[in-house]
Design goal:
Blueprint (H helix, E strand, L loop, with lengths): L1 H14 L7 E4 L12 H9 L4 E8 L5 E3 L11 H4 L17 H4 L33 H15 L4 E6 L2 H6 L4 H11 L10 E4 L2 H8 L7 E6 L4 H4 L1 H7 L5 E4 L5 E2 L2 E2 L2 H7 L3 E2 L16 H11 L4 E4 L2 H4 L1
Parallel strand pairs: 1-2, 1-11, 2-4, 5-6, 6-7, 7-10
Antiparallel strand pairs: 2-3, 8-9
């Protein structure tokens, strides 16, 4: 009953134009239950009450943005058996070396180690079961907007520009391709339900200044950097981005907040850390709900990336 009321509250909030706080961000969809970034995983996350659904973006050979966490296809598809011999010298199969028509032939699997064939998370969806496919960014937006229409909810999107510099070295511009899709489906300003995230701060500057993106931007950080470790750094990036996405380890040490959330919020930045997984709880927490309560109520984050949206809700 409590979970149902929470979902109802979140739905009412977005229906009346107010974004709930903290927000629940479905990390690659409900990836704790279904293969990541599949439409099935997104549909489940939607049903579990997520406020935003994440889309990691990479490009195909013919320049189409697809929803895929890695620039390689090795760990989440059957590419090795479907297209033997198409790997690069380092042994990996890169999405950018395949056309969309070829990508559509791949079967998406629960994430596994391509060297051993073993599942990364053995307790999750069974390896090799089901018929799941990679979808394009456009297809996913159509899917989410369709659910918004049929349910009356307003769930947002949270695309990530993956390795923008690397894509340009390969002769393609991921940011431009993404912005074209966003514009086509009505995501253009900070009032739209969209956050664009990236680990490359120079690309975020490019999105804001050169490419003219007027929507919300989030700087992702996987380790120590003066851009978020110092007050001057936070003040500086706040001129470009609207929020930060640090690793959970930067938010708290055990049950003691590090102070990063408060410092970032003091300069007007939202804080959306990653990634909540029930298989990787820090010491001192009894279960996933206990850890989630701590992050929301004591660490006071503005949102949280989670593989388990239902726990957040």
């Amino acid at each position: 009953m409590k979970a149902a009321l929470a979902i109802l509250w979140a739905s009412c909030a977005v229906l009346h134009g107010a974004e709930p706080s903290p927000i629940v961000i479905a990390h690659r969809g409900a990836s704790g239950y279904l293969p990541e970034h599949t439409l099935a995983a997104k549909a489940l996350a939607y049903a579990q009450g997520a406020d935003y659904l994440e889309q990691d973006l990479v490009l195909t050979k013919d320049g189409v943005p697809i929803v895929q966490h890695d620039v390689t296809l090795d760990s989440t598809t059957d590419v090795a058996s479907r297209f033997p011999g198409r790997q690069r010298a380092n042994g990996s199969f890169y999405a950018i070396d395949f056309t969309l028509a070829e990508i559509r032939q791949l079967r998406v699997l629960e994430r596994f180690n391509p060297k051993t064939g073993k599942a990364v998370y053995p307790g999750r969806f069974p390896a090799g079961v089901g018929e799941f496919r990679i979808n394009t960014f456009e297809e996913e937006i159509i899917f989410i907007q369709g659910l918004n229409k049929s349910t009356g909810r307003k769930v947002g999107i949270y695309p990530e520009v993956k390795l923008a510099g690397w894509h340009r070295q390969e002769g393609q511009d991921l940011s431009k391709a993404m912005l074209a899709v966003l514009a086509r489906y009505g995501y253009a300003t900070k009032s739209d339900l969209c956050y664009v995230q990236c680990f490359e701060y120079t690309e975020l500057q490019r999105l804001r200044n050169e490419l003219g993106w007027k929507g919300r931007l989030v700087f992702l950080s996987g380790g120590k950097t003066p851009l978020i470790d110092t007050d001057d750094g936070l003040k500086g990036i706040a001129k470009v981005v609207d929020g930060i996405g640090p690793a959970l380890s930067a938010i708290a040490e055990g049950r003691k907040p590090t102070g990063l959330v408060a410092r970032a919020q003091a300069v007007g930045l939202k804080v959306h850390p990653y990634t909540f997984r029930i298989e990787a709880l820090p010491k001192g927490f009894t279960d996933g709900k206990d850890y989630h309560r701590f992050l929301m109520q004591e660490a006071k984050v503005d949102g949280l990336f989670t593989d388990f949206p239902d726990v957040g809700r």
